[in-house]
């Protein structure tokens, strides 16, 4: 076996940088509802999530195998430069969506980056299209729908079981349940997302002849990937936490518990069978489902629409950036150096732009914070789904009803 070269070392460091961005980009998956309902203080929540992400990284390597020997053909002449270009595409997209406060998929950014760079540098034959469809695209569509349906049913069941209890009495118990379910989501996130970086590093080691094809990730790869995603998680992606916790729907403790429990179940099941799904999409679907499950709840479909659009754009956008990076990287050492400089420059520019309207742990729950979403009236979709919902537990908050203008029939607000 060959020694690790300078280029492979650069790829490994870049992969760990991506893992770090994955951590702070996806902190919201586990902790947004827990923070928004006050079950945990923001800093306490991200610290717990970071620790459990690290533990989850050691529980399985099935998803890592999907990355290192699944979507990309290891024997097709994949070089470290290609992997480096793919990682740059994923990092840039992660940072752009973080700046916009959109919970897009870090996983799909990584897949798109690797696929785009591989197509440009090697060709379409080096991409295992059947694996991409079966283990990436189908889970991308199915997972948020399944998680959303599970959260809707769980929320309705929760309110039905507690319909004779006062909401204030049950809130404390649900907040305790939220902490437990958030811990489970964090653990599940580590079993899925941390492994993606392990798979990329293993792919780079295979491409450089350091390890044999189809090898499991070495222990030092597992440890470094776990530490990187834990560090990013502790940093806290406050912009995205605000969007999921406050901008998508108004979450009550019972809803938060139902959403997180449903999301954790879907993620753990997918990790067990090697589906490299998007934990972001699963958790977002769960939160929307929980919003629909409570009578009187409102899903802000304008925010949800922006999220779905980002989901659809992630694979091609990261692929385009990575494809351009691959064209440069294929030119030799100067091309790799140029890609590295451009990646650092773009990342620094995004960070500087984020300082203009910072969102931190101090203002993440404030409705007047820079990225907070405005209130949105109940749309026709929400109203139709809520029509069959059971009555909520406890007294409902009074809802202001605006009388229609004379001569006009009342109409549901547009979604």
TrEMBL record:
GO terms for molecular function: phosphate transmembrane transporter activity. The chain crosses the membrane at residues 6-24, 45-63, 83-102, 109-127, 133-155, 220-241, 308-328, 334-353. Keywords: Membrane, Phosphate transport, Transmembrane, Transmembrane helix, Transport. It comes from the Bacteria. GO terms for cellular component: membrane. The keyword Transmembrane helix applies. It is found in: Membrane. Belongs to the inorganic phosphate transporter (PiT) (TC 2.A.20) family. This is Phosphate transporter.
């Amino acid at each position: 076996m060959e020694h690790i070269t300078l280029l492979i070392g650069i790829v490994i460091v870049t992969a760990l940088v991506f893992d770090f961005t994955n951590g702070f980009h996806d902190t919201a998956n586990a902790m947004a509802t827990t923070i928004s309902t006050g079950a945990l203080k923001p800093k306490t929540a991200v610290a717990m999530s970071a620790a459990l992400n690290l533990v989850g990284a050691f529980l399985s390597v099935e998803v890592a195998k999907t990355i290192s020997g699944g979507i990309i053909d290891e024997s097709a002449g994949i070089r470290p430069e290609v992997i480096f270009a793919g990682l740059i595409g994923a990092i840039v997209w992660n940072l752009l969506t973080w700046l916009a406060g959109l919970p897009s998929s870090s996983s799909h950014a990584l897949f798109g980056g690797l696929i785009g760079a591989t197509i440009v540098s090697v060709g379409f034959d080096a991409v295992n299209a059947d694996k991409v469809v079966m283990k990436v695209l189908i889970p991308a569509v199915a997972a948020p729908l399944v998680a959303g349906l599970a959260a809707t049913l769980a929320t309705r069941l929760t309110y039905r079981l507690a319909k004779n209890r006062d909401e204030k009495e049950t809130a404390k118990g649900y907040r305790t349940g939220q902490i437990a379910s958030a811990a489970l989501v964090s653990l599940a996130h580590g079993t899925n997302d941390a492994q993606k970086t392990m798979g990329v590093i293993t792919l780079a080691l295979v491409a450089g002849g350091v390890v044999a094809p189809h090898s499991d990730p070495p222990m030092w790869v597992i440890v470094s990937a776990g530490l990187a995603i834990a560090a990013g998680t502790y940093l806290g992606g406050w912009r995205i936490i605000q969007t999921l916790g406050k901008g998508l729907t108004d979450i009550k403790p019972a809803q938060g518990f139902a959403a997180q429990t449903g999301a954790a179940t879907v993620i753990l099941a997918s990790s067990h069978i090697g589906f490299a799904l998007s934990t972001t999409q699963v958790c977002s679907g769960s939160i929307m489902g929980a919003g629909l499950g409570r009578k009187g709840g409102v899903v802000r479909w304008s925010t949800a629409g922006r999220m779905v659009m980002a989901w659809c754009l992630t694979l091609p956008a990261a692929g385009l950036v990575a494809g351009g990076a691959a064209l440069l990287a294929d030119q030799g050492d100067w091309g790799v150096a140029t890609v590295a400089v451009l990646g650092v420059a773009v990342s620094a520019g995004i960070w500087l732009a984020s300082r203009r309207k910072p969102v931190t742990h101090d203002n993440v729950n404030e409705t007047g914070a820079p990225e907070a979403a405005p209130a949105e009236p109940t749309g026709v979709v929400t109203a139709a789904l809520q029509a069959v919902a059971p009555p909520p537990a406890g007294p409902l908050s009074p809802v202001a009803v605006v009388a229609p203008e004379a001569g006009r029939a009342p109409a549901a607000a547009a979604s």
